[in-house]
């Protein structure tokens, strides 16, 4: 069985390749594994949440040492996640085993550029709406309206249930409370001089 090449070895091989590749083909190749990996994350996480639906989020991360490396990191989340650059968010339904893309945000530089544009190409219209909602601090409201969902963000959920959590926290517990340590019980019989201490 042959060993897998490291990321560094693959980067050196790619850097030495003189072939010119079509950017569209590269983009399709980069996207091919996203949906299978998102489903893998959802299937691995479905036992964790009692809710019928939860979110699967993909973050695109770079590498501090290997400049051309791009990592796709997936995680599951019970609330609407906070939007951030280079993020894709899916809503997964356990019963139907279906996944719906809610948004995908590009790099921070691209987001800033899109927010300044008044007219964009058709292929950027949806992203432009997401970016504008992001900068106008109306992102979750926009996503709920666009997809007809009512899920809350973590902040909104905690605010909506604040009193319930306060009441639950103020109830008396049957568990015993530990007593604080009494430092007055410590006595020093002899102080050793560290310069004359021996290890024998």
Keywords:
single chain; 200 residues; alpha+beta; four-stranded antiparallel beta sheet; 16% strand
Structural notes for this entry:
By secondary structure, the protein is of the alpha+beta class. The protein has a domain at 20-156. It contains 8 helices and 4 strands, in the order H-H-H-E-E-E-E-H-H-H-H-H. It has helices spanning 7-16, 23-31, 34-45, 108-116, 125-135, 139-147, 154-160, 162-170; strands spanning 53-61, 71-77, 87-93, 98-105. Strands 2-1-3-4 form a 4-stranded antiparallel sheet, sandwiched between helices. The longest helix is centred in the N-terminal third of the chain and has 12 residues, at 34-45. The termini are far apart.
What is the helix content?
25-40%
Largest sheet: 4 strands, antiparallel
Q: Which structural class do the helices and strands define?
A: alpha+beta
Instruction: Give the overall form.
Output: extended
Q: Indicate the proportion of strand residues.
A: 15-25%
Briefly, what is this?
Helices cover 38% and strands 16% of the residues.
List the helices and strands and how they pair.
Blueprint: H1 7-16, H2 23-31, H3 34-45, E1 53-61, E2 71-77, E3 87-93, E4 98-105, H4 108-116, H5 125-135, H6 139-147, H7 154-160, H8 162-170
Antiparallel strand pairs: 1-2, 1-3, 3-4
């Amino acid at each position: 069985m042959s060993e897998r090449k490291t990321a560094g070895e693959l980067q050196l091989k790619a850097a030495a390749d003189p072939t010119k590749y079509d950017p569209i083909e590269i983009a399709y190749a980069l996207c091919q594994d996203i949906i299978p990996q998102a489903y893998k994350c959802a299937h691995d996480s479905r036992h964790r949440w009692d809710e019928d639906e939860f979110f699967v989020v993909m973050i695109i991360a770079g590498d501090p040492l290997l400049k051309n490396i791009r990592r796709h990191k997936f995680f599951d989340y019970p609330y609407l996640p906070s939007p951030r650059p280079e993020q894709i968010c899916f809503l997964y339904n356990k019963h139907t085993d279906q996944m719906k893309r809610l948004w995908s945000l590009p790099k921070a530089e691209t987001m800033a550029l899109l927010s300044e544009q008044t007219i964009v190409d058709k292929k950027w219209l949806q992203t432009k709406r997401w970016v504008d909602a992001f900068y106008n601090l109306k992102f979750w409201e926009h996503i709920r309206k666009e997809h007809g969902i009512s899920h809350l963000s973590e902040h909104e959920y905690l605010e909506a249930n604040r009193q319930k959590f306060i009441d639950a926290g103020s109830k008396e517990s049957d568990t015993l409370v530990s007593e604080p340590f009494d430092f007055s019980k410590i006595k020093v019989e002899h102080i050793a001089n560290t310069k004359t201490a021996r290890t024998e």
